[in-house]
Fold this protein.
Amino acid sequence: MESARKRTLLKVIVLGDSGVGKTSLMNQYPSARWKAVGIVILLLSGALSVVPSYILPCLDLLELTRYVSKKFSQQYKATIGADFLTKEVLIEDKLVTLQIWDTAGQERFQSLGVAFYRGADCCILVYDVNAKRTFNNLNTWHDEFLNQASPSDPKNFPFILIGNKIDLDGGSKRMVSEKKAREWCASKGNIPYFETSAKEDHNVDTAFLCIAKLAMEHEHNQDM
């Protein structure tokens, strides 16, 4: 019976340069619920203070939720603050709630803090196959995550890599080959690799399901 199934919460961090399509990938994940946790302006001692709202989880008045529609925006707009969505999936008869966190543009200001990474169960790294710079920065994001999240078993921590925007101009603008991406994954302990198109909703579900399964396996191994 469904009520008898064990529920598990997994915190998924999505990292990569601004503009690689992280938010668009999340928007294409069906039946997911968004919670916007951007920036809160507080009046403290007569002065206005800007605070990331993810450190104020108890303020329900500031919580905005909506259901993600499967629409793609042609016009890129950097997100402000930090957002996460929740999605329930069934893995081996277990109900798993994925809490998927988006950097939401803050990577441009190097303002991601320990609170963003704290308690992460897995990480999705994203780059744009048409922008070599975003691929070259993957080492920085990989190391940044391990430094900030401080997992107990960094060598076996669940990562996947997504090469996004494979649809752009029919692939004619591609700058990073699949072979090169897979070589990078092999150098990091054989991280699973997926090529996606958020615009065409290609391979998105498969990638998210893979990271969920990896996180569950890692959690099981940690408990042994």
